[in-house]
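Entry for the shared binder. Reason: the reviewer on the internal report wants the predicted structure included alongside the sequence.
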Amino acid sequence: MHAKEVTKSSLASIAQGLRTGEIRSADILDHSIACHAKSESRLGAYRTWCGDRAQRQAIAIDQLIATNIDLGPLMGIPVSVKDLYGVPGLPTFAGTDAELSSDWEQAGPLINALQTQLGVVVGKTHTVEFAFGGLGTNPHSGTPVNPWSKIDAPRAPGGSSAGAGVSLAQGTALLALGTDTAGSVRIPASFTGQCALKITHGRWPLDGIVPLSPSLDTPGLLARSIADLAFAFASLDPHTKSITTTCDLSNLRVGIIENTVWEDIEPSIDDNTRKALSAIEKAGSKLHPVTLPCTENVLEIFRAGGLAAPELRAFMDRNFPERIARLDPTVMARVEAADDITAADYLQRAANLKHFGQLASVAFNEVDVLVSPTIPITAPLLSDLANPDTYRRANMLALRNTALVNLFGWCAVTLPTGLDSEGIPTGLQLIAPPMQEERLLAVAQSFERTIGTSLEALGPAPLS
């Protein structure tokens, strides 16, 4: 198989092709490097690019495979990594204006699992500073450009895993590692036409990842399809060997969240979402309107800084007090506001979130999964985000629907539903109770096949 055709193949097919000799990892990396040379100057996905190093690794991997050495499913697959993860030999900036100490290059369990399988890290992608934002902007190192933008009207890529979705769209990576505290893998995936998985808090360890809010942070995956997400999740999760590739949609109980998530929605996003749900209903699923309790209660806490602002402030006071004055102004305002949050306030917020999550979880007594639009707005123009008021409103709207999942303690995926009126991809969010990732991915794969809105059929992103 020609390396260019790899972008049309699933990770499972690529893994099989590598082992039969039909595909070579070195050829895949040649294609990745060519895609980087073609579009990186326009898109700016990477803070650190290590294509030459990755290519040398790929050549060595092909030699190992030729001698029947197989170290795991992700062997030879090019992967981009959010610049919060420690990767030995690569600097970590965490979206800041200066490199962090070498201690932050140490690999945690997730990177160890990837590298033990000889997954090939092609580079570290841009992030919002300390991951504290949902649009993907960064004044220190530059903001990646959404590949679906018009060339003269660049739009936000989504954040905080800002370069992750871009790296997949441009073809430099076939899998991306991000993190998700309030939507930070699902937002960039939705805005760039990819898929993403937000796992349950605590399922995977956070060691080796620069924290934003340890109470809410989760590692996350972005891929070109739900099938690829399932393959990658099964490859990295220590408790999962495989994911069922199909789920009978007939009589599946799908709860459509009716309150909060549709407010201020752009009409074409509303339309795409409802068309996707209509296709699911025609496949036999039973759609049930659901009013989630406590959505406004948890969002009120979130808009006041939630747990993230005081936890990031405490982390910076311990580790980087000298950097606070140099923060991105959009981040600094929320970090400084944490000074007004007392210990009693923080503990009350944490207790309330736990209580509200318990109350909201009763929704799953009546349905198997919940659904919502992933993001109610189109990716904003970067030029508009220079206005602080515009930024704040767009940031909160972009985060609103996804943040509910984190605040309630659930897991979720997003998958594409089409293009909005501005030509930007839209997404459908599927939500499941804690620790039900395997079931969620099985359902999502059936949704993916049923919806029939493949962005691949629409052609590549204009700027990719």
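Summary line for the report: Residues 91 and 219 are 19 Å apart (CA to CA).
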